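Risk register update: the risk of archive-format incompatibility is retired. Evidence:
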Amino acid sequence: MRVILLCLLVAVSCYAEEEQKLQWKDEDGLEIKIIRPIKAEKCPIKSQDGDVLDQWYKLTDKEGKEIGSNFNKKPYTFTLGKGQVIPGMERAMTGMCKGEKRKVVIPGSLGFGSKGRERDSIKDDQTLYYTVQLVDLFRAVPGEKWTTEEGIVIEQTHKIDEDKCKKSKSGDTIHQQYVLHLEDGTFVDSSFSRNAPFIFKLNNNEVIKGMDIAMTGMCEGERRQVVIPSDYGYGDNGRSPAIPGKARLYFDITLEKLIQRDEL
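Archived output:
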C-alpha cells in the first residue's frame, strides 16, 4: 500500500512539474500557456533574439471578442529582439519551437501602453489576450562587413554561398523587406508593418542613391545591415516629419525576391 501511495505521489509531483513548464506568470503580469507543445526530438532550435519569425496570431478582448487574426492566412513576419512588436509579444515568442502554439495575456504596460491603439479600438493600458503560433523560424548565417568608397557601411547579417547566389545588377526588379531607424534608435518605417515587400528597379532613380549602392551585387535571400550617410540618403533637408536633415540612416534589409532584367 505504501509503495502504491509513493508511486502516486511521484506521479502527481511529476505532473505538477510538467504543468508548471507549460504555464507560467511573470512578476510584471505577463501570462503564457503552451497549448500545443512540440516534442524535443522535433524541435532542433528554439526562437531567440535575431531570429526572423513567421507568426499566426489571434487577438481578443477579455470577453473573447475578436479584435484581429491572421490564422490560416499570410503569417506576420518580424525579427525577434528588434523592437518590431510590442514588448510582451517579444517575450511571449521567445523560446518557441516551430509549430508551437501559446495563449498569452499581455498587460497594458507590455502592450500598447497609455496611448492604446485607436485603429484597433484598443484602449489605454488595455490587457491583450492573444493566441499565437510559430509558423516558421529563420536563423541567419553572418557574413562580411565593409565600407564602400561613398562611406556606406554594409554588413551581411545573412550570407548566401556564392554557388547558390542569384546576384542583383542594374535594371533588376528588387522585392525588398526593410526596417529603418535613426542613429538614436528612433523607429522610422518598416515594410513588415505593411506585410508586403517594397518593389523597385535597381539603379533606376526610384530609391535613395545609398540604397541602390547597398543592394547592388546582393544575393537573393541575403540580409544586410546598412548605414547610409545623409549625402546618399535625404541630404541636408531630410524628409519631414520623421527624418531630420543630415540624418544617417540605419537599415535592416532583405532581398526577398530578385527578378533579373533578362527574365522580364
